[in-house]
Design a protein that fits this description.
With 297 residues, this protein is mainly beta. The protein folds into 2 domains: 2-119, Sandwich (Immunoglobulin-like); 137-296, no CATH class. The chain has helices at 116-119, 184-192, 201-207, 226-234, 236-244; strands at 2-11, 14-21, 33-42, 48-58, 64-69, 73-76, 89-96, 105-111, 137-138, 141-146, 153-156, 162-165, 258-264, 269-274, 280-284, 289-291, 294-296. The chain has a 5-stranded antiparallel sheet with strand order 6-4-3-7-8, with no helix packed on it. Mean pLDDT is 85; it is low at 1-12, 113-117 and 119-129.
């Protein structure tokens, strides 16, 4: 009889396995050489055999046998080649208390979360990328856009920086340096550097340094350009679900209201977007509008 006392990840390519071994009459098999065959089956207890190996180990005075799955004599397959994302997987152990290969004791149990420590090397990845995803709490906020590589994208702050902020208190057209539809960082820099500006939505974002929220503290925030704000609107559901379920009463989901973009329309107007529903428009720079900061990664 085999009693599994523990199975846990040890190294990137092995699992540590321990079992108490008894004879058919219940007597501990103490300080004896035993033969063990390990099989990993896919999907069901009688599913596809993806890996098998044998071990010869010596039990201790308590009948405990210890071995490393992945470190035995290979019979079928390669342990390191198992695709743990294609589970579930089941572990079958067969034992010969006499130390040979006449296995008379067998047991099968499902491998639950343990092997996925091995899968963590590639978990969530796509083609070897970092695998960031929309709605993930990461980099000081919530991810709302990920590029095709999976390594770069955009993050929005976990709070509105204001609900009554003007676009700028200067009614002079900045021009092309603040009129990009996609480069909010450049727009923000141009607005912040505008002569005579004392308050603006861009300055709020440029000055912002987020609280931790468990994802790190960052100070490279900026006011999104029109297209970046559109992407934030497109991801609105996932963002709001992530924020509302983060367990932090301080964080605030996106509201169904107008949010400033950093894209200037002309000397007196800036572009904004009615978030959650999506409706871009231009309004006076002096209008009191919501502000949500973003940053890139």
């Amino acid at each position: 009889m085999i009693l599994v006392s523990g199975i846990f990840a040890q190294t990137p390519e092995k699992l540590s396995y321990q079992s108490v071994i008894r004879n058919s009459d219940g007597t501990l098999v103490e300080t004896s050489i035993v033969g063990v065959q390990i099989s990993i089956l896919q999907t069901t207890v009688s599913g596809l055999l993806v890996f098998q190996e044998t071990h010869t180990v010596t039990t201790n005075e308590n009948g405990l046998a210890t071995l490393e799955i992945g470190g035995g004599t290979p019979v079928t397959g390669t342990f390191s080649a198992i695709d743990w994302s294609a589970g579930p997987y089941f572990l079958k152990t067969e034992t010969d208390p006499a130390g040979g290969t006449s296995y008379t004791i067998a047991g099968t149990s499902e491998l639950l979360g343990v092997p996925y420590a091995l899968y963590a090397k590639t978990a969530g990845s796509t083609n070897g990328t970092s695998g960031r995803f929309t709605g993930e709490l990461y980099g000081g906020g919530a991810v709302f856009y990920v590029d095709p590589s999976g390594e770069h994208g955009l993050i929005c702050s976990m709070i509105d920086l204001s609900t009554v902020q003007v676009w700028s208190d200067v009614m002079l057209e900045i021009g092309s340096t603040a009129q990009s539809s996609w480069d909010g960082q450049s727009n923000t820099t141009a607005i912040v550097n505008q002569p005579g500006m004392t308050t603006s939505a861009a300055k709020l974002c440029d000055d912002y340094s987020n609280d931790d929220y468990g994802t790190g503290i960052f100070s490279d925030w900026y006011l999104p350009a029109g297209q970046e704000l559109f992407l934030l609107n497109e991801a609105g559901y996932n963002i709001n679900m992530a924020i509302m379920n983060d367990g932090n009463p301080v964080t605030t989901p996106l509201q169904a209201y107008y949010y400033w973009s950093s894209t200037e329309a002309n000397s007196t107007q800036g572009w904004n977007n009615f978030l959650v529903l999506g409706s871009p428009s231009v309004i006076a720079k002096t209008a009191p509008v919501y502000v949500r900061a973003i940053r890139s990664f």
